Amino acid sequence: MAAYATLKEQGTMPNNFSYRQVEDAAFRAVLVKRVFDLLFASLVLIFLLSWLVPLIALLIKLDSKGPVFFKQLRTGKDGLPFYCFKFRSMRMSNDADHKQASRGDSRITRLGAILRKTSLDELPQFINVLRGEMSVVGPRPHMLKHTEDYARVIDNFMVRHAVMPGITGLAQVAGHRGETKELTAMTKRVNADIFYIKNWSFLLDVKIVLLTVKQAVKGSENAF
């Protein structure tokens, strides 16, 4: 009710717009997004992952020692941790939970470089979507250590956790992906995430998905 009152005071809501209408509109938005997530993830699972997972799994095993999948605790909605799934693209190491991948990173395998460049390493996250831990589109989830560190130095950093994290997001298609050596790089990513949350629409999600596919086909210079 406090949020509704604030909006009304700021003149951003008509006087006859009730708090129940605000709740109903928010519920419908979440429902539409979740239905889209389930439908899209199911189609990807049936028509893509059903044959691509065995193929990539075989190639990973032939390329390097270690498991096919890599799972890592990351920060989800409301700041709750969850295990985020990826195809393993690096050699096993003890610094995976606090060190970002960088250009020319010696941990990245030969196959892993291709998987990361095309974002194919992210495909197992459709399992996270079906489990209700992620959305197709939303702020990218960070390692717990990075969430802890950046929350201390970037204003409103935790606002991005008001929604479920996504496989792709506005920040990624806008070019704010990859390593964040400087604080300004992460700040730009956070600002894009907050803009997305404030301006969400179904059409915006569709546009981001299409741009992501285009980016994956072309390859991103910030993907390494």
Describe this protein with a few key phrases.
51% helix, 224 residues, single chain, mainly alpha, disordered N terminus
Describe this structure in words.
This protein has 224 residues and is mainly alpha-helical. The chain is 51% helix and 9% strand. The chain has helices spanning 2-9, 19-63, 110-117, 125-130, 144-153, 170-173, 183-198, 202-218, and strands at residues 69-75, 81-87, 135-137, 166-168. The strands form 2 sheets. It has a two-stranded antiparallel sheet with strand order 1-2. It has a two-stranded parallel sheet with strand order 3-4. A hairpin with a 5-residue loop joins strand 1 (69-75) and strand 2 (81-87). The radius of gyration is 19 Å and the shape is globular.
Short description:
The protein has helices at 2-9, 19-63, 110-117, 125-130, 144-153, 170-173, 183-198, 202-218; strands spanning 69-75, 81-87, 135-137, 166-168. The protein is mainly alpha-helical. The chain is globular, with a radius of gyration of 19 Å.
Relative helix content: 40-55%
Number of helices: 8
Cα(first) to Cα(last) distance is 45 Å
Percent range for β-strand residues: 5-15%
Mean pLDDT: 86
Which structural class best describes the helix and strand composition?
Answer: mainly alpha
Radius of gyration: 19 Å
Reading the helices and strands in chain order gives HHEEHHEHEHHH
Described by strand count, sense and barrel closure, the largest sheet is: 2 strands, antiparallel
User: Quick one: overall form?
Assistant: globular
Strand runs, count: 4
**Low-confidence runs (pLDDT<50, min 5 residues)?**
1-17
Strand order of the largest sheet: 1-2
